[in-house]
Amino acid sequence: MDVRMFAVVAFALLAALAVSSCAAGARSKPPASRKPPAGRTVTMKGKPLALAGAALEAGDRMPDVTLVSNDLAPVALASLKGKVLVLSSVPSLDTSVCAIETRRFNQEAAALGDGVRIVTVSMDLPFAQKRWCGAEGIDRVLTLSDHRDAAFGRAFGVLLADLRLLARCVWVVDREGVVRYVQLVPEIASEPDYAAVLAAAKKLL
Model's pTM, two decimal places? Predict the structure, then answer.
């Protein structure tokens, strides 16, 4: 065998070994596992969704963020101090569970009296909130929008960043602006525990 033929054969053998090694490596590599997002999560019909921002706990001061009212006026949460505040976040008023929840709090507001203010926050546009409240006869719940910069969602730790929606959560805040009760609903498609929320609010009256 001359030198040129030897070189050709050697090159072919090396190429075959390289292909075989790559194929073996590909076979030995374990399949990527589908893990839920790291950190704090809730679920939407069983699918885990990551929450952005740090969780508020009882004893924390309510963050002072500015939201948008139905008539496009800015509303600072600090301006709502002086009454017990039942503050709820919902994904969208145009969904069935959020509508049920907001109607329920509107009904309960009368029994709680003037010492309690109920506020619902969503990413819905102010125009959509106004339309929905008018159609549903909501007159005892103040609806505010976080659509501009999601400042509420981040500050309260309930922003679903991938969807740019808010998770379902309820906070009860005392007259001085201190959070006294938190209920993060683990499954977005579920309603909150109304009895626990109302009991927490009544304790502060």
Answer: 0.81
